[in-house]
Each structure stands twice: as C-alpha cells, then as structure tokens.
Design a protein that fits this description.
By secondary structure, the chain is mainly α. It contains six helices and no strands. The termini are far apart.
C-alpha cells in the first residue's frame, strides 16, 4: 500500500506510521560472528590485570606540607617588605607612581647587602639545597 504524498511539508504522524517505523521484526541488528567472543576476551583480560599502583601519599604529604609552609612564609615576607617600604613623596608619586617607587626602594635595599641580608641569602640557598637533597632521595630510592 503506497501512501499518497501530502501537500504539507510536515505531514501528521499516525499510530500506524509509528508502528511501522518501530517494527522490530524488520530491523534486527546482529553482531558480527566474533564480536561476542572478542568482548568476552577483552573483559577477561581487564579482570586479570593487576590493580593500579596507589599514589604514595605517605611520602607526598610532608613535601606538600613543607611547600605550604614555604608559600605562607613567602607571602608573609612580601607583605612585610611592602608594608615596611618608605612612603613615596608627592613628587615621586606623581611622576613615577607608588608601585615603581616601592620597587625602586626594594632594588636599593637589596643592592646594599649587609650581614643580615647575607645570612638570609645563605639560609635560603641552604633551604633550596636541602629540598633538592630530599627530592633526590625520594625519587631515587635505593
């Protein structure tokens, strides 16, 4: 039975049209001959695979804690340096801006290295070296 072509662009869908479109007996999809076997083989392979290696949290937590402490100390040091910077005079503020005057003070203060500055630089280099040794020990376990 041939259906007449409807003059409207969107013809009404009837229940018979829907039943004919959804008829399961016409459109059965069968897998290929080796599909079920290949799926079962892949499932058995995945089931027999060893468990993934867990992340070594016991070794990572001290490093994360030390990094957090260093980050807090760095932020506190920056806040301390910026808050202890001398206030810019109105002439400096109008010509160069407050930020550039604080940076100029920081460069001037770092260029005049005194004994406390050398102690801070030496201790920071020692801390970097200690972190390097700890990381090397954690990575290259004997």
């Amino acid at each position: 039975m041939k259906r007449p072509i409807s003059p409207s662009p969107n013809p009404k869908l009837t229940a018979a049209d829907l039943d004919r479109s959804l008829n399961v007996e016409q459109d059965t999809i069968l897998p290929s001959s080796g599909f079920a076997e290949s799926v079962m083989t892949a499932m058995q392979h995945e089931a027999s695979a060893p468990a993934p290696i867990p992340f070594p949290w016991r070794r990572a937590v001290p490093g994360l804690f030390a990094a957090a402490v260093v980050l807090v100390a760095l932020i506190a040091g920056v806040i301390l340096v910026v808050s202890s910077a001398p206030a810019a005079t109105p002439v400096q503020a109008s010509t160069a801006g407050v930020l550039s005057s604080q940076l100029a003070w920081l460069v001037h203060a770092s260029s005049a290295a005194t004994l406390p500055d050398a102690i801070w630089i030496g201790s920071s280099l020692a801390l970097i070296f200690a972190c390097f040794l700890v990381c090397r020990r954690l990575i290259f376990v004997r």
